[in-house]
């Protein structure tokens, strides 16, 4: 009897509570699999939980000091009679896994991120990153930049860009609360240090003719909301969590998209999401962003003067660019998923 085939993804968040880059990646990677392949997604959560998410069997393991032992026991007991591969996005899960990881996806090198923050445990992270690469059969990088900044020096790797599941998100008939007489600026970011939300706050303060909306959760959401309130700014709003359907509406109704970063941007997913909806994207001239952007004219230095000047200078030239075509030729759902299908075929 043939064993059932399955792919087990390791990630970070419960996608029903918090969904960002990694969860989106796992979603479209899973959708590249053949129908006869079962899909599982394992993550750490506040409680032990199981549910279905777009055909993916999700398993949440309660966060406690025994979680890595439980992870190994779960793999051994549940999947022992199946032909499975492990596709991990999580360094610690792969580090503590008793067996090898088959595919390990690198968004940002662990040591690179820690070094940028001057984290006190950065040397430990260096050891973990190197060990995970040695324990993985194939390393997948989402950009040339993520490869360059990693500690991987072997030859068994693939660089495959990511795509966006928004091609499959349905449109909802709902009016977005934009100020009609202002330039509508939208972005989707995790509200943390590297997202450079301060720059958008400066932009809102500097130009009252902009209406800026930011979708996303994160550890600094409360802090930045309080700062906006103290500065009495009415033209910038941090929306918090927004459903995919509403995010699509914001993309479609915005005039332009921004993707600002201080460091650690291994790809820049909102860039291609803006292009999907044929919108210009102005983004920081760092990390992998120049690799993804349509033209260097849309790259900005991380200061409010350059950001505002670039918007004023190049926004009027938008008709000369076909952003949607650029997306379709380089990042479309079908093209990227075909590359992942070939990747999985090497293991099944």
Short summary:
This protein is α/β, with parallel strands linked by helices and 348 residues long.
Question: Topology of this protein?
Answer:
Elements: E1 4-10, H1 21-30, E2 37-45, E3 49-53, E4 56-62, H2 67-78, E5 82-88, H3 91-96, E6 101-106, H4 110-116, H5 122-134, E7 136-141, H6 144-148, E8 157-159, E9 183-188, H7 197-206, E10 210-215, H8 221-230, E11 236-240, H9 244-253, E12 256-259, H10 269-276, E13 281-284, H11 289-292, E14 299-300, H12 304-314, H13 323-330, H14 333-345
Parallel strand pairs: 1-2, 1-5, 2-4, 5-6, 6-7, 7-8, 9-10, 9-12, 10-11, 12-13, 13-14
Antiparallel strand pairs: 3-4
Helix pairs in contact: 4-5, 7-12, 10-13
Q: How large is the radius of gyration?
A: 21 Å
What is the end-to-end distance?
16 Å
Q: Structural class of the secondary elements?
A: alpha/beta
* Overall pLDDT confidence: 93
Strand order of the largest sheet: 3-4-2-1-5-6-7-8
- With helices defined by DSSP (H or I, 4 residues minimum), what is the helix count? 14
- The H-and-E topology, N to C, reads as EHEEEHEHEHHEHEEHEHEHEHEHEHHH
Q: Can you summarize the main beta sheet?
A: 8 strands, mixed
The fraction of residues in strands falls at 15-25%
Percentage of residues assigned to helices: 25-40%
E-strand count = 14
Q: What are the segments in which pLDDT stays under 50 over at least 5 consecutive residues? A: none
User: Overall 3D geometry?
Assistant: globular
